[in-house]
Specification:
The structure is a single chain. The chain has one domain: Rossmann fold (3-Layer(aba) Sandwich). It contains seven helices and ten strands. The strands form two sheets. Strands 1-10-9-6-2-3-5 form a seven-stranded parallel β-sheet, with helices on one face. Strands 4-8-7 form a three-stranded antiparallel β-sheet, with no helix packed on it. It is an alpha/beta fold. Helix 1 crosses helix 2. The structure holds 2-phosphoglycolic acid. 2-phosphoglycolic acid (PGA) binds next to loops.
Length: about 240
């Protein structure tokens, strides 16, 4: 596991976008696993700009999103389809036909894992972490070998995500997520975390024993993980 601690969110985003752009340049037909949320937002923005600055092309990549809310249509501004289009896809030359979301495979979510496999597997998975240690929407207690499936969101996640909705009652209570087993099948993983509210989850994920109580702790057993933190999210790490 390689760990970078950057000064702040801007530097974290610069570091992440550079690593991802270099990877795409070396592997122009790669398969990316994508996360949504406020953490990777600037990374996507910078990647979009790199298309112009250093001619990074996304034309031949395929993408699989980590998760999506159940019950929101793709054109709902709170949906992850919408987020990806607005924050990333529309800023690149990606072929939208090569972008996939787990809810598009309802109700047979096994087909999402099959589709990932048929595409050759995920070469690079981008991940955020929840303040409760979740990855994707694999909440504490999720099985480490789980595959793509529909899940109930924890109270903690509903509370965290309420900031994106007008009313807390509008936050969906269910979502479809890649399983932890799906995520762990990615050949390379980049985990991003920013802000003091993530520092406990980051500490539990990186420094404590692997446990389903902190789903992200399983990343300790993956052989190619890059962790990019800002100082705030790393405040509990010593040395
Ligand atoms: P955030 O979400 O980037 O919006 O903090 C991360 C997550 O819940 O996985």
């Amino acid at each position: 596991m390689q760990i970078y601690i950057e000064k702040d969110y801007n530097d974290l985003s610069k570091k992440a976008s550079k690593i991802i752009a270099d990877f795409i340049k070396k592997n122009p037909k790669c398969v990316l696993g994508l996360a949504t949320g406020s953490t990777p937002q600037k990374t996507y923005d910078l990647l979009g700009k790199m298309r112009k600055i250093n001619k990074t092309s996304f034309k031949n990549i395929k993408t699989f999103n980590l998760d999506e809310y159940s019950g929101l249509s793709a054109n709902n501004p709170q949906s992850y389809h919408f987020f990806m289009k607005q924050n990333f896809f529309d800023k690149t030359d990606i072929d939208i036909k090569n972008t996939f979301f787990p809810t598009d495979f309802a109700p047979d979510y096994k087909k999402y894992d099959e589709k990932i496999k048929k595409s050759g597997g995920i070469n690079l998975q981008i991940l955020g972490i929840g303040s409760n240690g979740h990855i994707g929407f694999n909440e504490p207690g999720s099985k480490f070998f789980s595959k793509t499936r529909q899940v109930k969101l924890s109270k903690n996640t509903i509370k965290d995500n309420a900031r994106f909705f007008k009313n807390k009652k509008d936050v969906p209570t269910k979502a479809v997520t890649m399983g932890i087993g799906t995520i762990m099948s990615a050949k390379k993983i980049i985990l991003l975390a920013s802000g003091k509210n993530k520092s406990k989850a980051v500490f539990n994920a990186l420094c404590k024993k692997v446990s389903t109580k902190t789903p992200a702790s399983i990343l300790q057993s993956h052989k190619d993980v890059i962790v990019i933190l800002d100082k705030d999210s790393a405040e509990n790490l010593s040395g």
